[in-house]
Amino acid sequence: MEPSKGDITQLLQQYQHGDRDAEGELFKRVYSELHRLAAYYLRGERSGHMLQPTALVNEAYLRLAAQREKEWQNRAHFIAVSARIMRQVLVDFARHARAESATSAFRVSRSTRSTSSIPRITTRSSGSTWMRH
């Protein structure tokens, strides 16, 4: 049975006033909707993505719970804020993965480079060899 919108709004208000039981009940009631939303967003990502819908929902939950200002108007507003946070998690994840990839490629290229692969220039007149950097 789908929870009524009024029930969710009431739980949001209780949660905003510090009711920890309301927090647990709220997330229990909206979890399946957030999970479907996370699965939808992940279908738009590259195949083999490291995040799964459950992990995305969990990360969004942690960020929602950490917010100082919890002024959600109603169920729709809460879901919209959750969706925005999930998208931001995916952006942050992609940025981190890209940075890791670039750092890893840099380390590999530096560690595999040897002096034998550096082009040498020989001058005819002196016969000396110069390394070009």
Strand residue content: under 5%
Inertia-based shape: elongated
Q: Please give the domain count.
A: 1
Distance between the termini: 69 Å
Walk across the major sheet and give the strand order. 1-2
Rounded radius of gyration (Å): 26 Å
Helix-strand pattern, N to C? HHHHEE
Poorly predicted residue ranges: 117-123, 128-133
Biggest beta sheet summary:
2 strands, antiparallel
What structural keywords apply?
single chain, 133 residues, mainly alpha, two-stranded antiparallel ribbon, 2 strands, 66% helix, 5% strand
What would your notes on this structure say?
The protein is mostly helical and 133 residues long. The chain has one domain. The protein contains four helices and two strands. A two-stranded antiparallel ribbon has the order 1-2. It is elongated and about 45 Å long. The C terminus is likely disordered.
Question: Would you kindly provide a brief summary of this structure?
Answer:
The chain is 66% helix and 5% strand. It has 133 residues and is mainly alpha-helical. α2 (20-43) crosses α3 (53-66).
Topology readout:
Elements: H1 5-16, H2 20-43, H3 53-66, H4 75-112, E1 120-122, E2 129-131
Antiparallel strand pairs: 1-2
